[in-house]
């Protein structure tokens, strides 16, 4: 369903979609730059799917990093991962322009990777942490 239809379309349970939600989507679409979203509301999209140019490939920006951190910390709390685990830093994971690990080759503690990801928005760190927890688990 296109977000512009949400104000007049009945929802999955027969209720009319929120006019406020439709207005929020329009405000998002009006932001400067290129906008895109694909939102599945409810378990498996049971409450609806809202999209605007959903196939457009964009960088996910730093918002994604908080979800990676959250999943990594959940895994650390459950014993699946450790914040002290040494993680490899090399050209196989390096993203050009990432400020923290630009000249480092070797290993560093996962805690340092997570700190670089959050404190410095380092994309190399984000790629490393995502690789540890799995992108599908972050999305879930």
Secondary structure elements and pairings:
Blueprint: H1 19-29, E1 37-41, E2 48-52, H2 63-77, E3 86-89, E4 106-109, H3 110-119, H4 123-133, H5 135-139
Helix pairs in contact: 2-4, 3-4
Number of strands: 4
Strand order of the largest sheet: 1-2
User: Could you say which overall geometry the principal axes of the C-alpha atoms support?
Assistant: globular
Query: What is the distance, rounded to the nearest whole angstrom, between the alpha carbons of the first and last residues?
Result: 21 Å
Radius of gyration: 19 Å
Mean pLDDT metric: 84
Category from helices, strands and their pairing: alpha+beta
Low-pLDDT residue intervals, each spanning 5 or more residues? 1-15
Largest sheet report: 2 strands, antiparallel
Reading the helices and strands in chain order gives HEEHEEHHH
Instruction: State the helicity in percent bands.
Output: 25-40%
Task: Kindly estimate the percentage of residues that lie in beta strands according to DSSP.
Answer: 5-15%
Number of helix segments? 5
Description:
With 140 residues, the protein is α+β, with helices and mostly antiparallel strands. The chain contains five helices and four strands. It has helices spanning 19-29, 63-77, 110-119, 123-133, 135-139; strands spanning 37-41, 48-52, 86-89, 106-109. The strands form two sheets. Strands 1-2 form a two-stranded antiparallel ribbon. A hairpin with a 6-residue loop joins strand 1 (37-41) and strand 2.
